Amino acid sequence: QGERKGTNKYYPPDFDPVKHRNLAGYTGQHPLRERARKLHLGILVIRFEMPYNIWCDGCNSHIGMGVRYNAEKSKIGMYYTTPIYKFRMKCHLCPSHMEIKTDPANHDYVIISGARRKEQRWDPKDNEQIVPEDRNDQKKMATDAMFKLEHGANDKDKASEAKSSLAHLTNVQAFHKDDFGLNQLARSKFRTEKKALHKLDSEDDALLKKSSLNVPLVEEHDDDVRMAKLIKYSTSNNYSNKQKERRDAIHSRPLFHRIATATKSPSSTKERQIAEVKKSVQTAQASKLNQAFDEQAQKNVALKGIVREKGKSGGGGGASGKAEGLRALCDYDSSSSSADE
């Protein structure tokens, strides 16, 4: 646990910064222990995993990809700003050693000695992979303008060929770009559907409660709605409706009742015509009688069935006497009644 304590910056109580200066001086060894035994030579022991299948030159044994070794890692050069590392390891089947280095220019590993590679490589162009520019080509483009122009024309051709695939990739990236917006849209949609379902459930519960039913209701269909609109229902004549009609009739009734006449309204058209004829005849006879009465009243002549009485004036003369009383008795004999009928 000493190396973990050093990494965690644990300083024991008896640590003296003047005497020990650092934790490595206090423990008397490097925090990486045996892995750093050649650190003064620039070598660090690491775990190295075989990047591809190889054959060992010492024992001619096959070593599969993924086999791990304790390899000595050292820096042997630079590719631009990327360091080039060499890994030296011992074969687990024989005492021979193998050396492999990194190749940043081609994104690969290169065997220096002690083994040979099982050739399973292909042209990156055939596999539609990105081919990095060679260092010599880059130098030539920097110095040769014609080569640079030809290289630019080739790049344009490649761009036109890859335009459709690039557009597809751009659309896919744009579709999955805004995670927050997509999440918000999905939550809003689910929230709207949830409210609609709650509303439908509440309506179903109200209908079941009103009908005193305890059966599950099926979903509403458009055909059911269309058929329901075509059906006409008559008004229910229940107790509450009857009471409402009675109250409305009472409110619409006049406050003071009219005196009912003894005559009855005719029920048929023929009777109504006969009643109109009788009424017109009676009106004509009454008008003639009144006219004759007015004419004879001026002559002081009595008419049949009419008695005119004059009051006697007492003491005061005609002006201060009593007013004349007039009593008209219209008596119709049986003959005139039968004629009218």
Automatic annotation (TrEMBL):
GO cellular component: post-mRNA release spliceosomal complex; U2-type spliceosomal complex
Source species, domain of life: Eukaryota
InterPro entries referenced in this protein's UniProt entry, alphabetically: Saf4/Yju2
Region (Disordered): 306-341
One GO BP annotation of this record: mRNA splicing, via spliceosome
Pfam families: Saf4_Yju2 (PF04502)
UniProt record similarity statement: Belongs to the CWC16 family.
Protein name per UniProt: Coiled-coil domain-containing protein 130
